[in-house]
Amino acid sequence: MRLLMLGGTEFVGRAVVEAALARGWDVTVFHRGRHEPVEGVRSLHGDRNAPDGLAALAGTGDEWDVVVDTWSAAPRAVRDAARLLRDRVRRYVYVSSCSVYAWPPAAGYTEDAPPVEGASADAEQTDYARDKRGGELAVLDAFGEERSVLVRSGLILGPYENIGRLPWWLGRAARGGPVLAPGPRDLPLQYVDVRDLAEWVLQGVDREVSGAYNLVSPRGHTTMGALLDECVRVTGDRAELRWTDPDVVLEAGIEPWTQLPVWVPPGSELHGALHGADVSRAVAAGLRCRSVSETVADTWSWLQGIGGTAPQRPDRPVVGLDPAVEAKVLGG
For residue 96, what is the DSSP state? Predict the structure, then answer.
């Protein structure tokens, strides 16, 4: 199989590239050259935001079995790539997001939930939800439903994470001492390991799947307690989790999801939207999810291998809780 990866040097794209190479696929990555690509790929350079930014891609005349695209800014960049490639690629896989649904989607939402309004394939960058939906529309316009795969991912964790969620919890556990652990311990979580996402994408290409899929683990794949217990364990058992009632956390003005990554209060619309997707369609199409212990351990191993500091995407806010706020809530 011949894969064209648009991007391919960070997080999701890198995981897809590594999985494809492990399968013996021929891989071309089209990227800006800011990061070193995985060894064994062919590189093409270009900036999709620049005039003639696709020139290197247009000039090859090559054909591929599949293109995988993770773009999350102006939809017109997806539009331009999809139009350029529609006669040279069999299938277009666009890594979208569950954020494309009208907010907030009710817990248990399927791929048939109504999408956000106001999105356009021709738009400049607006907001994340409309940009991702605009990217979907661009792919559908150029490739049609039968040759398009819309991977509506939820929370993505694992090695190479450049958003900072799991790396922040690991770093906090590694510092040791009392840790503000937002309760309840048995709060169900839903996420997907980036490597499981990559494997599902490539397996889906083999199976010639099409259409939209909510791509995240089954609801309740793990819990907040299990996730944080693993963070403490792999970092040397130097931290003491202090489980704190959700009302206490919220009354302190702490923002769910950002200041305490991954966590959102139980019973809230936010929890239903972020940890409540129906993924039966993806499971039926082969989704398999590894254990939380493997995801946490491998992410910690990766962090140690790069010196302990995770990369941070410049277009995403820095996550995590100020130590002074944590100490105040814990009574320190």
Answer: E
Q: Is domain 2-153 classified as CATH 3.40.50.720? A: yes
Q: What is the mean pLDDT of residues 215-239?
A: 97
Residue 164 CA to residue 303 CA, distance in Å, equals: 11
Tens-place pLDDT, residues 125-139: 999 999 999 999 999
CB atoms within 10 A of CB 167: 25
Q: How confident is the model at residue 332 (pLDDT cuts 50, 70, 90)?
A: low
CA atoms within 13 A on the CB side of 302: 19
pLDDT of residue 316: 87
Nearest to 28 by CA among 77, 86, 80, 67: 67
Question: Cβ(91)–Cβ(205) under 8 Å?
Answer: yes
Report whether 74 contacts 125 (CB < 8 A): yes
**pLDDT tens per residue across span 173-187:** 999 999 999 999 999
Task: Give the C-alpha separation, 9 to 33, whole Å.
Answer: 9
Cα 105 from Cα 270, distance rounded (Å): 9
Distance CA 204, CA 282 (A): 10
231-280 pLDDT, tens digit per residue, is 999 999 999 999 999 999 999 999 999 999 999 999 999 999 999 999 99
Q: Indicate the Cα dihedral angle 19, 37, 214, 216, nearest 10°.
A: 70
Surface-to-core class of residue 302, CB atoms within 10 Å of its CB (0-12 exposed, 13-18 middle, 19+ buried): middle
Q: CATH 3.40.50.720: which residues of the chain?
A: 2-153
The candidate with the shortest Cα–Cα distance to 310, out of 174, 121, 201, is: 174
